[in-house]
Task: inverse folding
């Protein structure tokens, strides 16, 4: 599954940079077990970098952030060319997207979503193209065969609200 996160950096020179989650987020493929550990840890107040059993995922996340940092100025603006050498980063902290944290905190049993199987449905149009609706871990993903690059994702409650379903339905 795709795990979206944000991060903050502390450079060796003392400067800091915190990614603006409203403008950009990082994403990486994580197993359901890794994502479950992250959610359980964050809801328990544990920093993602301190969660046990996800060291390989944390390594890949760090590598992605180091590459992304080469294409950012320290004020967060984008560079047209990446730095030839990576900056000296002293510390990286990762964060679960705040909207996801809020959604999990609203749930009666947030870890219960990991017990539900993933599902997929295709709705075909007259011209043979289709919309794919997938649900996994409390999220709904909507993709169109007409636009392979575009997709939407949202939590289940938001999806049902967009359908005009009454709350609690």
Result:
């Amino acid at each position: 599954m795709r795990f979206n996160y944000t991060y903050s950096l502390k450079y060796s020179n003392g400067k800091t940079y915190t990614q603006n989650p409203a403008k950009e987020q990082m994403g990486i493929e994580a197993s359901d077990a890794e994502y479950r550990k992250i959610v359980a840890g964050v809801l328990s107040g544990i920093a993602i970098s301190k969660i046990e059993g996800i060291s390989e995922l944390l390594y890949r996340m760090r590598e992605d952030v180091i590459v992304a940092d080469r294409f950012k100025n320290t004020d967060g603006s984008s560079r047209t060319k990446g730095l030839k050498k990576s900056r000296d980063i002293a510390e990286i902290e990762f964060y679960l997207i705040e909207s996801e944290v809020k959604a999990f905190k609203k749930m009666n049993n947030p870890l219960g979503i990991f017990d539900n199987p993933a599902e997929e449905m295709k709705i075909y149009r007259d011209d043979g193209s289709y919309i794919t609706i997938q649900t996994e871990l409390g999220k709904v993903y909507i993709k169109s065969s007409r636009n392979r690059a575009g997709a939407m994702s949202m939590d289940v409650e938001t999806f049902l609200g967009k359908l005009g379903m009454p709350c609690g339905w």
